[in-house]
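[DERIVE C-ALPHA CELLS]
===
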Amino acid sequence: MSSFDFEAADTITMLRTLKPRLAGKNSDPRICFVIAVLKAGLYTNIIRHDLLDRYALSGRDFDTCFEMGDRSAVVHGVVKRALVDDAVKQAICDMGAGNWEAWKKTFDDAESIQSDLF
C-alpha cells in the first residue's frame, strides 16, 4: 500500500519518531506505538511489512514492543486505552481469536497485583 489517508500518514510519521525509542527502558513509547498502529488500522500493513521499504516500519517493530521485558506493562497500557476507545479494542479483537481475552487477563492480573499492594 503506497498511499494513505491523512490520519494514517500522520500516524506513520509518529511511528517513525517513536521507533528509535522502542528499545529503551521506558514502556511508554512502546505503548504509544502499539495503540497508534491499532487505532490507525495499520496492524496488517505492519505485520506484512508493507511499510518497510518506504517508511522503514515492519512487524519487527511491533514485536519489539512486547519483547523488552515489560510485555505485561505494554499490554496493560494498551488495554487500558482499549477500555475507553472502541476502535483500539476492536483492532485487538481483529488481531486474532482469543487476543482480547488474553490481553484483558493480563490487564486484570496487573490490576489485581496493584490493588493487593494498596
